[in-house]
Amino acid sequence: MSSFKAYGKVDESDQVMFEVQRRSRKRITIISLSTIVLVGIVFAAVFGTLAHNNARNNDNNDNNDQSLSSSVKAICDVTLYKDSCERSLSPLVHLGQQLRPEELFKLSIQVALTAASSGVEYFSEHGAFDEMNLNLDNRTKEALVNCKNLLELAVDHLNSSLVYGGKSSLLDVLEDLETWLSASGTYQQTCMDGLEEAEEALKSSITTNLKDSTELTSNSLAIITWLNKAATSVNFRRRLLSFSNKDQQPNWLHSKGRKLLQTDNDLKKKADIVVARDGTGKYRTISAALKNVPDKSDKRTVIYVKKGTYYENVRVEKTKWNVMIIGDGMNVTTVSANFNFVDGTPTFSSATFAVFGKNFIARDIGFKNTAGPEKHQAVALMTSADQAVFYKCSIDAYQDSLYVHSNRQFYRECNIYGTVDFIFGNSATVLQNCNILPKQPMQGQQNTITAQGKTDPNMNTGLSIQNCNVLPFGNLSSVKTYLGRPWKNYSTTVFMQSNFGSFISPNGWLPWVGDSAPDTIFYAEFQNVGAGASTKDRVKWKGLKNITSKQAKKFTVKSFLNGDKWIPASGATFKSSLSEEEESYEEEVVVRGNRQDNHDYRVKEDISFYKTMGVQEFQDWKIDVDRFFDVIVIPENKQVKMVAIRLNSTIVVWWDKLVVQR
Description:
eight-stranded parallel beta sheet
């Protein structure tokens, strides 16, 4: 374990400080050794039990079954598609060879990657699908182009899972791996969703071709989910956080990202690119500006879009990382277009503004699709980017306004308007302090706010709507409005601590088809207020839960998104739990980190710069030192998001993970 390196004046004669340093080293060493032993014990115990039970239950199997490695049998027992799991892994593992779960996980990714790559080839210009010479309408043709692009995204996420799983301790990236594998499965499902109205022969052909890819991706997800649960069951994962590979630290840790935490005016003045319709910027369109953003850059690129309405369909491509777009206000700077389903555009392609590049931030800007309710699906904003933040934005359309497609997303203080299923998708998303504003639909239509699309029980996806206002935009007294309907079998949506207007239907929720919902959904309402918040007459579905505070916490920014690690870089205000008072560690914590030369800041007139990061003031635990130690012990029950130490005229800032010490 690395230690703080000395910085500033070091007083070698300070024997007291030396003793603190020595004791701290000893304490951390004990923690480290104990943790390593614990990892081995957990995986040996849990995995060994699985293997033993599997062997015992299969004593009378035929020779084919006996040719399987017991480790393959054990790991495949946790998957949804056991046959495809065993069939794909058994050729890669010799009889009698016992592999660790993490090794089998990596093999499962490899076979899923091979299958997904075959899917990309199938949809390519000269692939097997192209040779079928089908007579297709334009919408179906575009849906098939989307399938190729979606399969490429699935391959990208499988590659990321394989690379990160190899570079880091698997335990350091469990949540990331669950997210990327969930997204990979979502991409493949979206391909099929886009072909719902295609001919049965076409759908059957594609379903058959994608069968291996979807099943093997699901298997990898099941394995990593099981590993995560095994780790959580003995509560040691937080202890291991200090062993992460520095190269794998989230982008928000980088000093370049921290420099973004400035006022809106500062961001606009120092923007890398300025867009203005009147010609006073470098570009007149956002799309032109994005073409000049470097690919796969670890440096944040800030694009300031001046006031006005920009009539364009914008795509932040998957290679455009760390882009921030800031406008002059959600109702002042607007991006507007009108692609829609009725006129021949698949839902996935209809977005006015679509984001694929990771670590995207949007502030003070609006997104509109003006197609109108009669055009059915017409998306204003679609996001497939991981760790995306939207702060003080407006999303305005009718059906399918906000497509929270995949990965991890956070929305704060946004206005979201729509009619049918107007917040939908299969990401892990938290909407916080937003105004959700159903408006007048077509005659005869009902409003449904959400349609969450979870298709696999192991996906870490869902919609969490916290501390929002759900109010009518206009007079909706004659329109039935529901909190949502279950788009897929494992649809997961939680409304909590929000204010419901009286226009919400007493039933609360609407079936997708028929008069009920799958038992496998997870819907919940927790601590909501307002005239429409009573649950007395809600639908009596098995999947509509009464949840406790402990269960509700699982859908907060901190637990659901791991958001306290990456949202601060956006400058967005956020609440990481149910209440700020509940945010504290039960154990004493030891914070450690490595200083790097570009990681310090001059003292400012006030501490507002640091407050924007959600940092508590020093108060009674302010630390005054003239040298650095290997560790700094923070008093019990203090939430630590940053360590800032004042040395004469300099504040040196570390961002690092916490070693939890019991």
